[in-house]
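So, can you check what follows?
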Amino acid sequence: MIAKTLAGMLLFAGLCQAAQAREYRYSDAHLHYVDFFQESEGMPALLKAMDEAGVEHSMISGIPVAKKWHEDEPKRPRYYAGDDADAYWYSATDTYVAAALQKLPAEQRKRFHPFLSGFNPVDKNAVSHIERMLDLHPGLWQGIGEVFTRHDDLTALTSGDTPRANNEAMTRIYHLAAERDMPVLVHSNITSKRERNPLYLAEIEEPLRNHPHTRFIWAHAGSSVEIHRHQTHMDFLLPVLTRLLEDYPNLYVDLSWSVLAPYLLDEQGVPRKAWVDLVAKYPERFMLGSDVVGRFGSLGEQMHGFEPFLDALPEAVANKVARDNFLAVLPRQR
């Protein structure tokens, strides 16, 4: 018995050492070049952070809203939730991204995969704006998003109607995305801060069902840090996601930071077996993102935080999740 136990311990130690020996190269599937005030550390800082973190490729987008500095506030807020002032839709964000990329040498520019985000998702004119941007910068844009629909307190703060992933304006955009072979990254919370059920599930499931030729990337798998503050852990998230992946082959999942804890890793930082099994079952449908916003110093920390989970996956699957799956979801003619 002692010999068997010792052999098991040695085998486990060997597996751990093999996992620790892995070196991952990354694609960052979720990165914002600017923050909620449309400001950025700039491309040199971003490239430095990518090189240090082993990030070979990155999705890059703006932020589709700008936070207002209200007349009554003596100090500018640092984040959209810093005070009760509105946010408003801001289309120039795409221009900032395009300008930053066009200044880069061709070899560096190839590392970036820009997504269009500067439009109001409840305006049926938005699809015309996207078409104009595609014509203005031919061959530049490779995806659409991050589209802010249900998004914590930002939804209430943003001027205008409540954005939903299944409204008519977004339907027009999904058709265009299918025609142009472009993925759509959508932020659509699965529930509110207080409802312990998938309250808003229909808002993301309806587009998945009605647009089978559009590739959807679900940001944070419908979770958010604000939901976690109130609910800690959504027990229904894993079974709902399992069903959606089975039913809709056009669904891809962005596992950016709010999914890492408490879902992928438990309180001790150990990978949760049920999530490891789910990713292994759908090895081409998950990708990683830093979700950094205009400041890039934490990019490496965000991406390397996934290593314990990646190490629990078969190595071939881990490499797909870390790097290859995001590249595979981009326009196929590339």
